[in-house]
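for the writeup, i need someone to sanity check this before i put it in the appendix. the sequnce is what the collaborator sent (i think, or maybe the updated version? ugh). structure was predicted straight from it, no edits. if anything looks off just tell me and ill rerun, i have time this weekend
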Amino acid sequence: MSARHPHPSLGTGPTPLAGLTVVDLSTTLPGAQATQFLADGGADVVQIEPPEGHPLRATAAWPALARGRRSVALDLADGGDRSLLDGLLGRADVLVTTCRPRARKKLGLTPRALSASHPRLVSAAITGWGSHGPWAELKGYEGLVMAKLGMFHAKRLVAPRPGPSFVSVPYASWGAAHSAVHGILAALIERESSGVGQHVEADLTRGVGMLDTWQWFAEMIGLRWPGAYETTDAFSPEGEPQGALLFPLLAAPTKDGAWLQFAQTEPRLFVAMLKEFGLGYMLTDPEWKGIPRFEDQERKSRLWEIMFQKVAERTLAEWQEVFRTNPDISAELFRSGPAVLDHPQLLHDERTVVVEDPERGPVRQPSTLVHADGRPLSTPRPAPRLDEHRADVLRPTLAPPAPKTPAASAPATTELPLEGVTILEFGLMFAAPFGATMLTDLGARVIKVESLTGDTIRGVLPFPESGGARVMQGKESICVDLHTEDGRRIVHALARRCDVVLQSFRAGAAERAGVDAATLRALNPDLIYVNAPGYGVDGPYGRKPAYAPSVAAAAGLALTDAPDAAARITSLAEVKSSSLRLNQAAAVPTLQVDGVSALGAASAMLLALLARRRGRSLGDLTVTMLGTATHTLVEQVVDYPDRPQSPRVDPGSHGFDALYRMYEAAEGWVFLAAPAPREWQPLVGALGSPPELTDERFATAGSRRDHDAALAEALAGIFRRRTAADWEQQLTAADVGCVRVHEEYPEVLLQTDEALAAEYTVEAVSPVFQEHPRRDPHVRFSRSSTRAKGGCMAGEHTDALLAELGYPATEIAGLRERKIVGG
């Protein structure tokens, strides 16, 4: 065993996954992100690499993604190396792959084959589109998934030109990675009872679907009841503000050119913002009646311009002094790259760590996604050298095999993997609460505690309940006044019966409400307590409001997708254009950091549930919106001497380079994904071997990189000759990654295309929408089942839950009369 890289089970802390072995055959980002989470949790992750090394070794993120794992190089086309892999799988608990279904079959790694040979193994396959359906055999590049789904259309206003906009933040990879984590951990929890493993499937298509807040229902209402209510785009076609939220969520430059993202959405905070800006008079001036909700465009545009002017009157330092002294004013600096890790809250929470790498020197990177009792879950260790651990890992497989004990037949169960688990949720809006929603699909019972008026998210859209319909799926709701002694007594009684408490209030709020970890664990010592706030449970930003746009600005998501937007401020027109682009880069309902964070919150709860089943206490867990976003963008934020340059979006928002970008066709747009050197000749052949591509400048991978602009120009001319649909058909037939960019919201596409709806949606029932389509569960199991419920009304289950706690009907009526409970 390598002295510099000890097995994680030899560490000093009680890591939750110590003793579990993960064989990682993945070659793409979602696989690496999934197994990084498992390695940080203490699992022994064995990275199987091809002899030439893992494809991600060339990326800046590799030292962080590969930390804590061991490396073995195997040529799986070689019979001897294939036998060595089988030996490893015989000792493993989890296998992770990212190849397409037909490639998995060629390697003999089908679910049936693995179950027969390794009955205790949990195998997880991460693909682009899933193993079935009309898109199953398409290449799984993130750009292809995002283009074909319509995600580039959803972000179209980020581009400085008409048409769809390339999305560079790896939203789909993150969604697929943590969908796989959810499946793996749930299957391991189920294995604790059944004694056998099973196959788990996750994909980028379903994974990126976990990020939508309410667009699914907004589009569904429009399809089902045209004209039910008028939808208003955030900006007019001329780039002027139309949505009222644009004013409290103002993105504006300071006097010295730094861009700030404000977060003043609560009414009292918007009032404070106007007063700080010297605009308090508008609150009583008849000219500005209704501020910030105006019917006429003239006042909307004037207010926007006035607010830009007010922000530009002070420097960044002057504004930072305002934020320090005025608790009602909050804004985030738009950060990017490694500077993200300098955020004061990340430093306070020890969410930035430096790992000494023997090849690269000090590598600054995010610490573990989950923290326990205020500290990182484990101490990150350096990434391995290629094949560094061959002898250590393979030695047991070279010994004579031990006699096998006949395996019990795998139970043909259809039970939900989280059957019997109860989660008590204290949270608002979407980021943490949707993490609990995902677990309802896996069988968890989630009891949501709401105020007497219900969660704010229920009313964010004009149509009743549409804003909160998705986050309420599968839950039971009880409305309780936590400011009263009787209200706290009710939730304390619920906590005694629960397995997990999830809370996402700002720092100090849980203590004031009497639902903090110390209080509830005194009532239920076995309780798992998970904090999932925006910033942290304390510290410099712990009490600040966290909204998707502000966290996206702080964590670098906005400037990753629109890297040049913040530089254009020489005129009011440029300020307006940049503000629009940054606003859309930071968050649209389909793609935003709330969903990114929800996936992390669900992973944290599952990690704790498995740890408890394995007899390991983890203390209070914390996962934050800001910290989770840094993991999503690890390629941009990691830092060390001579780091490779990370891909950067071109100024026209087409893509990264000539072989991974959008092109305008004779009709529509296509997205081309052929970045690997081995894909060049198939691409040239599929395009008909045009003479433009026989230029000696394009003869080698290196020369194509050196002449990228010329190659993009040549390809642009070729793609303009035919329609996008024609190019997709022609290149896909040759197994070249090229799809038509869908110019419609993904939520419309999946609800109106029958073949796609059959693959990616299911029917659910809710009190408001009756029977309706919803996205199907984000992970699939070979034995365990999932479910897909609809939403609930605020307080719909109040009486039933109180009766379950033993409250008689007369007392329930009294609690209602005194406004202790509602619904």
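Confidence is low (pLDDT under 50) at residues 1-12, 399-408. The domain at 655-742 is CATH 3.30.1540.10 (formyl-coa transferase, domain 3).
thx in advance!!
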